[in-house]
Amino acid sequence: xxxxxxxxxxxxxxxxxxxxxxxxxxxxxxxxxxxxxxxxxxxxxxxxxxxxxxxxxxxxxxxxxxxxxxxxxxxxxxxxxxxxxxxxxxxxxxxxxxxxxxxxxxxxxxxxxxxxxxxxxxxxxxxxxxxxxxxxxxxxxxxxxxxxxxxxxxxxxxxxxxxxxxxxxxxxxxxxxxxxxxxxxxxxxxxxxxxxxxxxxxxxxxxxxxxxxxxxxxxxxxxxxxxxxxxxxxxxxxxxxxxxxxxxxxxxxxxxxxxxxxxxxxxxxxxxxxxxxxxxxxxxxxxxxxxxxxxxxxxxxxxxxxxxxxxxxxxxxxxxxxxxxxxxxxxxxxxxxxxxxxxxxxxxxxxxxxxxxxxxxxxxxxxxxxxxxxxxxxxxxxxxxxxxxxxxxxxxxxxxxxxxxxxxxxxxxxxxxxxxxxxxxxxxxxxxxxxxxxxxxxxxxxxxxxxxxxxxxxxxxxxxxxxxxxxxxxxxxxxxxxxxxxxxxxxxxxxxxxxxxxxxxxxxxxxxxxxxxxxxxxxxxxxxxxxxxxxxxxxxxxxxxxxxxxxxxxxxxxxxxxxxxxxxxxxxxxxxxxxxxxxxxxxxxxxxxxxxxxxxxxxxxxxxxxxxxxxxxxxxxxxxxxxxxxxxxxxxxxxxxxxxxxxxxxxxxxxxxxxxxxxxxxxxxxxxxxxxxxxxxxxxxxxxxxxxxxxxxxx
Length: 699
Ligand SMILES: Nc1ncnc2c1ncn2[C@@H]1O[C@H](COP(=O)(O)OP(=O)(O)OP(=O)(O)O)[C@@H](O)[C@H]1O
Description:
Its EC number is 5.6.2.3. The protein is of the alpha/beta class and 699 residues long. Helices cover 33% and strands 17% of the residues.
């Protein structure tokens, strides 16, 4: 109890820019009735405990009009999370005499919200319906769909033990804590929309033969039978010519949400578009989960609903599709996968799917996971089915995800082949706004460390914000640690760059842009000012687990260095910090971009790799070194050059001009011919005259 309060008061964590409030309240987890409950403040009051969280301003006093945008940006102590280890969780349960079972990603315990039937065996695992996430401590009671944080759970236990004769906490106890009207209104609107679409959509078997064939051809599902579609509840929505995938509650088959898949023809290319109700940040459907029986112990997980349909029809095995494909596996879904002793991940036919399957297997527990490696003979399930492959045979080739630390080339050869055969994908995600950066760096890759430097006030934050936004709009889940400027200012810069216009003069368009921006997989740490590196890295770990973060931006390293004057200790500390980020990037397969101030240079000298503040360790550890050059380059105001001074991937280094647009706060390369100049690695850059256009060969 004592330790809980201390920990509770020292919480300090990050919040998401997205609809974190909505996510937390409606949250998530799979199936649930339209109403959600939150427990802790109520429990605390009833238990006579002081609030562990600072009071939260009523919603109305926070941001009445631009609610979605603003409310999630402000730091709300109620959303702070605290790290808890599985050992602590176990110790706590033992100290309270709560029996538990060690599951794959969760600990299973009897639910404190359910009355135990008389005469039932308290140690019978069948009655363990409450799941505690081993990494975060968050709990979900599958019987009532109540959920909450680790502190909420402890509060509940304290209350139960305090009140004599109380054997369980009824869900009604929490009724007074239903989410605010705004959230409820949102939910109700979603729910109406879901009903409207669902009722208007038709079964494939009820379509005219010709129309059904046409629709199936559009989605490449001609071989999927009507009975399979009906079994999974897939309908067709004629007004938008969309497939409709339902999200049913596994508890009571309540229709919780929908995903609509439509086709667009873009220059002869078919493009598939997804729309979800509720919106993506709150859409936690495991498609196909409602078909699982209690006794099912094996499942194949796919990234698309159509893959699940194909696999199930071809093999008869239980299949499930993830709500947001390869982009993330929200931990809120883990309790629903606890029943499976074996999970095969067959996520797709590209490198991104392969990377995602390795990451998801870590969350699901490597021991029970096997992976299907993409390859010519192993395309995605739907293509394999359409191409007449034997899907059962492909499943037999699944590789166990748990690997030893020492491997032979025999085990690596397929992986090496995959890299050789997919050169473009190995090179990473391309920037849409910085083609020159693609020419030099080839792309943005997971697991790398990029060091970014430039003179004070040269526009480092502004540039790195656009550089990260560009990747984020392409689906790279991004976490920002901005210690120098606060999140509101940073988000304002990013939103302006996103809209590519001065929104101050277009306030009428604000809501439209903010809505689109809110759907980006973008999260912000709430830290400001000096921070402890350990705390920052803890948050990064947590974010990777929760949101499958693929890119962390830290602006800037000096904010983890304390206030001391430059000393040997300080250099050692910087080396330690850089080493820590390096290790984090590698271990979590996550790209880290670290902004570092340069050391003081003579005014007439351009910055070089050696100008990075501190010892040589930073540039040695980095995979990429980027320098924003701004002195004596050209006469035009606002002109900057971006220099790639180190590129471990393929060694190409060089420099190209950036033109600053003050209205949109963007740095787009000057139009016309490429002004890229390739250089020898780490050479001193002579930039007193404008860069010369080259053919792209190394000079
Ligand atoms: N190329 C440019 N020309 C003119 N103004 C710019 C340019 N780039 C950025 N700015 C403006 O300069 C200001 C400072 O930019 P920013 O905060 O990005 O610099 P910084 O290098 O990160 O600063 P610091 O060294 O303090 O961290 C901002 O108001 C930004 O809009």
